[in-house]
Amino acid sequence: MLSGLESIQLTTLILVVVAGFAAGWIDAVVGGGGLIQLPVMLLVPGISPVQALATNKMGSIFGTTTSAVTYYRRVRPDLRTAIPMAVIALAGSFGGAILAATLPASVFKPIIVAALVAVALFTALRPNVGELTKLRHNGHRHYVIACLIGGVIGFYDGMIGPGTGSFLIIALVSAMGYAFLEASAKAKIVNMATNAGALLFFLPHGSLLWGLGLVLGGANMAGGYLGARTAVSRGSKFIRIVFLVVVGVLIIKLGSDVWHDTLG
Q1: Separation between Cα atoms, residue 162 and residue 38, nearest integer Å
Q2: Each residue of 211-255: pLDDT tens digit?
């Protein structure tokens, strides 16, 4: 069984740990930690893209679980919404991972960039959105919409991944009417499930580098714990600012990928 640690130099291992911590912090606050973590994983000598993706998911699930527990203890999000949403998201993520094995991510990236630009404009032009929880739907409709969000974004996470937490937060804020803080708490529970769904696909293929994944997971846990505590103490306004920064970076990164794919 490969650990992934046999041939890694100390400097590379330190870089992985730092990236894992930073990704855990960003993910806990607004999502998007994969922008930091996955590119660093691809720099590890001898690692294949599939191994990088699988090991990245293993590290991420430690961080999202830690931040989900921290949020739950301090924010107490409504699990009657979060758990069904997470179950549907897990199934969606598994399906997305299957599709990712057959279709290139470049097919979907232009659509994702357009969606991110719309999300950034919506959040920037409506400064009061997400300050307080004002639910837009009640009863059965509330849970149906929550599960639809979980399924669609879970599918996206399994297929492509970057910005999943950010998409979950803005969907919960704009479509459901949650404040940023409560949306972040629910998003972490759902994101934990999407990571699990992708891992269920990768596990039978033997793609995980367990030793490296555990190191990454430890760093992610530390970052996730600190990020969740920071978000809870600073509140929705702080999350909104970090959210706009991360979405801006996502637009630049994915937009650059689309540009290079077009030229290539």
Answers
A1: 9
A2: 899 999 999 999 999 999 999 999 888 888 888 888 888 788 878
